[in-house]
Amino acid sequence: MIRRLVASLMLLAFASLAIAFQGNEPRHVPTVDDLLTIKSVGGTQISPDGKWIAYTVSYGDFKQDAFITQIWLVASDSGKGFQLTRGEKSSTTPKWSPDGQWLAFLSNRVEDKNQMFLINPLGGEAQQLTKSDSAINNFAWSEDGKTIAYTATEPPPQPLKDRKEYFGDYDVVREGYSYVYLWTFDVAEAMKTPLVGKQRTKKKDFSVDSFSWSPDGSTIAFSATVNPDLIQGATSDIYLLKLNDDAVKKIVATTGPDNNPRFSPDGKQIVFSSAMGNALYFASNSRLAVVSVEGGRPRSITDSFDESPGLIEWKAEGIYFVAQQKTPSHLFRVDPASGKITRISAPDNLMAGAFSLTHAGDRMAFVAGSPTSMNEVFVSDMRNFAPRKLTNLTEQARGFTLSTREVISWPSQDGTTIEGVLIKPADFDATKKYPLLCIIHGGPTGIDRPLLLTPDARYYPSDIWAARGALILKVNYRGSAGYGEKFRKLNMRNLGVGDAWDVLSGVDYLIAKGWVDKSKVACMGWSQGGYISAFLTTSTDRFIAISVGAGISNWATYYYNTDITPFTINYLGNNPAEDPTIYQKTSPISYIKTAKTPTLIQHGELDRRVPIANAYELRQALEDRGVKVEMVVYKGFGHGITKPKSMRAVMQHNLAWFNHYIWGDPLPDFTAPELPKKETKDEKKAEK
Prior knowledge:
Elements: H1 2-15, H2 32-37, E1 40-46, E2 52-61, E3 66-75, E4 81-83, E5 91-96, E6 103-107, E7 115-119, E8 127-128, E9 136-141, E10 147-153, H3 158-167, E11 180-186, H4 187-190, E12 198-199, E13 207-213, E14 219-225, E15 237-242, E16 247-252, E17 258-263, E18 269-274, E19 287-292, E20 295-300, E21 310-315, E22 318-324, E23 329-334, E24 341-343, E25 351-357, E26 363-370, E27 373-381, E28 388-389, E29 404-411, E30 417-424, E31 434-440, H5 462-468, E32 471-476, H6 485-488, H7 497-512, E33 516-526, H8 528-539, E34 545-549, H9 555-561, H10 565-572, H11 580-586, E35 599-604, H12 613-624, E36 629-634, H13 644-663, H14 681-687
Parallel strand pairs: 31-32, 31-33, 33-34, 34-35, 35-36
Antiparallel strand pairs: 1-2, 2-3, 3-4, 5-6, 6-7, 7-8, 9-10, 10-11, 11-12, 13-14, 14-15, 15-16, 17-18, 18-19, 19-20, 21-22, 22-23, 23-24, 25-26, 26-27, 27-28, 29-30, 30-32
């Protein structure tokens, strides 16, 4: 009875999320620019005493052609909040001093590279603490608040500068790395004048990643790989740095990555995320493991948990972590002695993240959203989970015509249950048939959730299409996160093939319900979603149009050119020379002779993750077969498009492509598109 009452109270707490959509205010369909400039909540940092919560808000700024992040504060009891940082440059990564008197943060406001700044949370100007030669990656306060440690890439040595001056610039592949090192500095001294601090790690034996302070401030635990090359992820091990003499000792050296170390409250043990010796770890559950600060054999404490736990902190009552549970996500606590795991958050369908805990571990802040709410900041006591909403960014969407979102499931070709997010027009009528657009997430260990207006929707404007009268299906295909290790491994040596089953069976499921016009089904995706879209464009004629974003067309091309070759070995089992059959089976280019679907290809010019050769190979092969193909290269970008103007182009290109093939709109000339008319000076004066 009590459990039911608590669940009911949780539902009431989150019911307030939908308040912005009540009433009869006039509404309009959000534009591409609306979707790119809307403000969204990022991470939270609750103060040590729990009275204040710092959080970040990000938005697109077309004038600067950048996504800007600023820090806000909200009182956890009253809910009164205000913007703390301002300006044309971003301020990110707020972290409280242990006494709660200061907030340190990173900003690129000086020389356009991240330095550390300090601000009084009650207001005033921020002061610069560091003058690092290179951008700061991350930082952490010591427990006494007197010292801060940070990581940054080593500055270019003088011989390298001399070489560049004489020979011009070049790189030697897999040699000449710039390593990431640890520095520390005295906060009181840095408040007088910005410091570089003392470099604590110097040898080129490892490149530092995550780190944390011991409770007594004498030691820093850190994870590091043998060098900063992404292919070395499996070499990540756990080290201890003694600050009295800068001596470094490796205490964990198991196969597979070990990272994100956190000290126990008494400083005698360390918990960390680990592959526990599994060399093929990409699709496997990671574990939380505990080891003595003296070293020894690590002990896994989450073997019974069938997902990958995201470590947060070790408090007196246990070790806290966050994890996906299908589309929901929750906060958990594990007893380090017994391995007993307790879910802290509720209700079952909660989609929460960015948890932060007070020093005593008695209160938490987090971010959560729903199908009718954007992500908002919440606060709750730890012992009795009763969240209170402290922000209202969803108010921005009050005037939008928005679609509904729900999770559905269906059996795939081999009987596997697949889930997806179905987006329907606000005026959906089950007696009508609608066009269907499938959007496929990346990863493959990504996941789509029924959240409103999340930043990950900036390539594919689903609400615009739904408002025009389309259904949108986001498929959590085999290999997606949240569904356990067995599900995540279903696409090993079956990439593309099994994924296609999951998408096509989802299409068939909606057709069988009588909701879909099967002559108007389209598909799109980026990264792994782009690969699956490419596989579908060459292996089936079920789609009227497809968009391939940063997708793989040939796994051999990918393997020999990508910056993460271990990914391919993890999923396909070997290299192309040793096992050409599996590469042929899973490569879209192998099925090019059956390709018929008009295909838009989108790719970043400088993509190292999925090298652009994949895009050119698919484009040429489709053209050779007489298939309608358009390819757009976004200049200056890697695997992701990260600036508002170019994201506007990505979305407008997708809108135009599918509006043409689904609704028959004229297909614009991408090389010379019509642009909005600029206001004259007289028109601007008239508006005033």
